[in-house]
Each structure stands twice: as C-alpha cells, then as structure tokens.
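#structure-requests
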Amino acid sequence: MKILELDQWSSTATNISEFNFSNFDFTKLYGGDSEAAKGIFGGHFDVREVKETDSPSISNVWFMEENGKLKLWKYNYDSSD
C-alpha cells in the first residue's frame, strides 16, 4: 500500500489532514514541531510502498490516504533519553 512517511516531529503539523498524496507539499506543513524540525535538521518525508504488516522505523510516522485526505496510520516514536 502507498504511505507517506514523516519524521515524528514533522508529523505533528496541524495542517497535515489538509493534504492527500497528489497535493502534499512538505514546505507548506506548519504547526506543532514541524517548523522546528525543518529549521533544525530539514525534516524528513518520503512516499513509499509498504506491506500492511510492515512497521515504520524508529522516529517515523506513516500516513495513509482515506477519503482523499492523509490520516495517521502507524507510528514508532523515539522516546529515548
């Protein structure tokens, strides 16, 4: 299945649900920690094909498209100290 992978900080953007796969624009994410992530390390995003049984690597969040909008699907937050 097709997913959008974001780093855990960029995934906190308050406007993520305004996008779908065809109109997603990483530079237009705002809110949450997304702007800090872009400023500090550039953030991370990728559109990928994965199996439903796959899981994101540490500190990544996956979004799927549902009803024409991105929706949180799976996550693997890094909570290390």
